[in-house]
Write a structure and sequence with these properties.
The structure is a single chain. About 5% of the residues lie in helices and about 30% in strands. With about 140 residues, it is mostly beta strands. The longest helix is centred in the first third of the chain and has 5 residues.
Length: about 140
Amino acid sequence: MAALPASADHARPQRPKVEISAVQYDSPGRDDRSNRSLNREWVDVTNTTRHTVNLDGWTLKDASGHTFTFDDYRLAGRATVRIHTGEGRDTRTDLYQDRRNYVWNNDRDTATLRNDHGRFIDDESWGRDRDRGHRHGDARH
C-alpha cells in the first residue's frame, strides 16, 4: 500500500484568478461627455484560468464610490470583458455602465474589483495614489 503525501489528502481546488488587466481612464480626444467619448473610457477584466467564472454580483468601483455591479454575467476561461462607462448594448465581450458622466479620474484614481461576497480580488491605481500600501498592477493603456 502506497502512502500519499499529506498535502494530497487535503488539496483544495485552485481559486479562480480574475484580474483587472487594463484601464483606459483618460478617454482619447476631448472630454465632451458624448456617449462615444464616455465609451472610450473603460476597464478590462480578464479570467486567466481555463474555467468560466460567474461574476454575478461582483463589483467594480472607483475611489469616489461609483460602483458597477455585474448582473448575470459569466466570464469564459481565458477571456476578457471590457466595461465601458457610457451607454450601449451588453455583449459577451463588452459591458456598459450606462452613465452620462466619466467615472475614472485622469489625474489619479483606483479601480477595485470585489467578488459577490465583497472580498477584494484586484485593484489598479494610477497617479498620486499609485504607491499606497496595497497591491497594484501596472496601469496599462
